[in-house]
Amino acid sequence: MTMTIEVHGAGRQLSVAAATEVGRRYPANFDVVYAAELERRPGLCAVVADGMGAGEGSRTAGRVAVEVFTTAVQRHRGPFEPTPLFAAIADAQRLVRAAGRELRELTGCTLTALVADATGAWVTQIGDSRVYRLRGGLLELLTVDHTAAWLGAVHGWYPADSPQAAAARYQLHRFIGHPGLPEPDVLSVTMFPGDVYCLCTDGIAEQVEYRFMERTLGSGAPPDVMASALVSASLEAGGRDNATTVVVKVN
Q1: Which of 55, 56, 226, 251 has a Cα at 20 to 30 A from 190?
Q2: pTM reported for the whole predicted model
Q3: 147 lies in a domain?
């Protein structure tokens, strides 16, 4: 999927591509990806979600969460700011929790989004999918993983390559479908010409090496080429998870 989007009023042109790969571990792809122009104004809504587990609860959570979030974004009329983004996640929490009560199984997912128009850009993050930004040759991680592994790495609880750290990657303390209905992180982002943004699920973040991602996003290739290279690299690394990405290039 490839598209070019003009964001008027801010001198930006966004080139966007998405790619996804089922991998070799799961029988189906439980990631969900969405990338589309805004319907009410020039701009972009891009989302990746990663279901928890390999059951119907995983499939339902990702589908419902992305549908609720993107519908709210597409219907929003005013300038984007944190309030409607928090509200969209709150609505997704309630509906995914309701679906879980009917299914009687684990029903949850991550959700990571980038919404941009002429007034600015916002990242919404809950779970352990990620947003990276390449600027001036430096690849930075803009989001925080809501996992015990992230807390352990920050506070030195255990070595990053230890069995404890590996197990902690699956211990999410914020996700859509959590009984505590946690809120997301919402981050304001200023887009500069030359920036490249990468939204991805952990099938890429946990398998594709940082330096490969840095080289790929800095290659100057079209976004569809970069997105395909990232999901292909996840397969070469073992394909242990569904792998999904949206690449956004700012011109």
Answers
A1: 226
A2: 0.95
A3: no
Cα–Cα distance, 141 to 134 (Å, whole number): 9
Q: Which amino acid makes up residue 192?
A: F
- Report the pLDDT value the prediction gives residue 2, as an integer from 0 to 100: 56
Does a structural domain hold residue 159? Answer: no
Q: How many domains does the chain have?
A: 1
Range of the domain at 29: 2-139+171-250
Considering the domain boundaries, does residue 160 fall inside one?
A: no
CA dist 204 and 22 (Å) reads 11
Question: CA 219, 222, 225: angle at the middle one, nearest 5?
Answer: 85
pLDDT at res. 119 = 86
Q: Which residues of 51-74 are buried (b: 16+ CB within 10 A; e: fewer)?
A: bbbeeebbbbbbbbbbebbbebbe
Q: Is 225 helix (H, G, I), strand (E, B) or coil?
A: helix
In this prediction, residues 167-178 reach a mean pLDDT of 94
Work out the percent of the chain whose per-residue pLDDT is above 70.
96
Q: What is the pLDDT of residue 118?
A: 86
Q: What is the pLDDT of residues 60-111, one digit of tens each?
A: 999 999 999 999 999 999 888 999 999 999 999 999 999 999 999 999 999 9
**φ/ψ of residue 210, rounded to 5:** -55, -45
Taking the mean position of all CA atoms in its chain, how far away is CA 251?
A: 22
Per-residue pLDDT averaged across 218-225, rounded? Answer: 95
Q: Is residue 153 part of a domain?
A: no
By three-state DSSP, how is residue 35 classified? strand
Query: Is the separation of the CB atoms in 223 and 13 below 8 Å?
Result: no
Amino acid at 148: A
